[in-house]
Amino acid sequence: MNRTDRLYALVEELRAVAPRPRSARWLAHRFEVSPRTVERDISALQQSGTPIYAEPGRTGGYCLDKARTLPPVNLTPAEAVAMALALRHLDGTPFRATAGTALRKLVAAMQADDAAAARDLAGRVHLLRPSGPVPAMPRLVADAVAERRVLRIRYADKSGAATIREVEPLAYLGGRDHWYLLAWCRLRHGVRAFRTDRIGPVTVTAEVARRGLAPGDIDIPGELVHPLTLG
């Protein structure tokens, strides 16, 4: 059994007995590897976001939080590759850092033969590199809307003039070429769109942002902008 298949099998073994634990020694015997190899595999799964925790004691071992994991996902290989392709286009967006984790979880939740077929199909898809560098979004900006904390930012306008502002994050606005953080600007006393590649040093304050995005705050014709949906 190769490592990828073993990682998948480890998750399914722990899912099958959850919430009871399995010891590293038991898992090592089950998968015909050393306990040290099991420990390395569990560590890799934990780092990828799989909710596995260690239960101490003589009868302890590794446990899986079944409520926070996916059962085997019945995606076709083509559907998995389509999702991988979509995730690869997130450079410069607030969700670039989490795209890789999401993709690993998706593949780990697939049936082993479907995952292998998806990898084979993905290997036959080739992408042209962008003609220029895609500006990375600062991580603190990428987390701003979810974290709901007031930010202190240095912002440069199109002429390069910089100001220090405190802003209350409201939403993201994404276009073909640039992404913007929509926020209530305390300097300008209104909602402003801050192009994320012009945001310099960022400080997260302890203050919780209380405002919400009101109708009319996005001053763009309705036929040109629409909210993201999950369905």
Walk me through what this model shows.
The protein has 231 residues and is of the alpha+beta class. It has three domains: 3-68, Orthogonal Bundle (Arc Repressor Mutant, subunit A), CATH 1.10.10; 77-122, no CATH class; 139-224, SH3 type barrels. The chain is 35% helix and 23% strand. The protein contains eight helices and seven strands. It has a five-stranded antiparallel sheet. A two-stranded antiparallel ribbon has the order 1-2. A hairpin with a 5-residue loop joins strand 3 (149-156) and strand 4 (162-174). Helix 2 crosses helix 3, helix 4 (77-88) runs antiparallel to helix 5 (96-108) and helix 4 packs across helix 6. The longest helix has 15 residues, at 3-17. It is elongated. The relative contact order is 0.10.
What's the gist of this structure?
This protein is an alpha+beta fold. It has helices spanning 3-17, 24-31, 35-47, 77-88, 96-108, 112-122, 139-142, 144-147, and strands at residues 52-55, 61-64, 149-156, 162-174, 179-185, 190-195, 199-208.
- Tell me the number of helical segments per DSSP (H or I, 4 or more residues long): 8
How many structurally independent domains?
A: 3
* Biggest beta-sheet profile: 5 strands, antiparallel
Q: What is the string of helix and strand elements? A: HHHEEHHHHHEEEEE
The CATH architecture term of the largest domain is Roll
What is the 3D form?
A: elongated
What name is given to the CATH topology of the largest domain?
SH3 type barrels
**Which strand order spans the largest sheet, edge to edge or round the barrel?**
6-5-4-3-7
In the CATH scheme, the class of the largest domain would be Mainly Beta
Instruction: Tell me what portion of residues adopts beta-strand conformation.
Output: 15-25%
For the secondary structure, the number of strands is 7
